[in-house]
Amino acid sequence: MNPERPEERDAPEPADRGAPEPTATGAPIGRRVLLGTLGLGALGVVAAPTLQRGLEAFLGSVSGKDPTGLTGLLPNGGGFRYYSVTASVPHRDETDYRLTVDGLVDHPKTYTLADLRALPQTRLVHDVQCVTGWRVPKTPFEGVRLATLLEAAGVRSSAGAVRFSCFDGAYTESLTLDQARRSDVLVALKMQDKPVSHEHGGPVRLYVAPMYFYKSAKWLSGITVTRDVRPGFWEERGYDVDAWVGRSNGRDDAPTS
């Protein structure tokens, strides 16, 4: 089984990528747990919103202990599938969350959740498109435009890209500076009109509306301005660095933005 990325990563790598299969980590889930999860997945299709949210949290926690990846195939009320590149991810909240902005900037800064919430918020509604084909239509995200944080940091003239790191300790992503300054790229604090949950990459995640969802890094903790683009976790394993929906990764999906 290929390594799996956080939840929306979008399932195993395409066969034609030819990347080697790393060893799966974590203890396999038991037969009873899997059968029970299958039943919950089917129920989630018609469940009330409260039960759907509970199901999403359950699938997110179980998938981290399931190297078979079978839990990622289960339906749930939110329409997303759950994957992880690490066996577990620490939780962060108002007391200990920090987002750093550094690199080729004149004014490095560290933001708390309260700091980010105090900045002007932008709400976007677009389809979420996974590179493996599934789509969640008209998904609201809300947060601070990445361009706002970059402007406050004072990006130097030598800069050409932005690198993102995550507090799962493994995942990274990148954008060109022009891409990062787009009005439809957010440091998101809300998803589906609720605070971004831990399972969905909260409390803060990246949201890149016009690109496949593997670019929208979860558990965002660092924004580093660099001279050149540095391929992220999945780009190092064969995915396109420029991940425009319908114009990359050999797919022709309808644009999301």
From TrEMBL:
It comes from the Bacteria. InterPro entries: OxRdtase_Mopterin-bd_dom (IPR000572), OxRdtase_Mopterin-bd_sf (IPR036374). Pfam families: Oxidored_molyb (PF00174). Residues 1-28 are annotated as: Disordered. Residues 88-234 form the Oxidoreductase molybdopterin-binding domain. Residues 1-19 have a biased composition (Basic and acidic residues). PANTHER family: OXIDOREDUCTASE MOLYBDOPTERIN-BINDING DOMAIN-CONTAINING PROTEIN, PROTEIN-METHIONINE-SULFOXIDE REDUCTASE. This is Oxidoreductase molybdopterin-binding domain-containing protein.
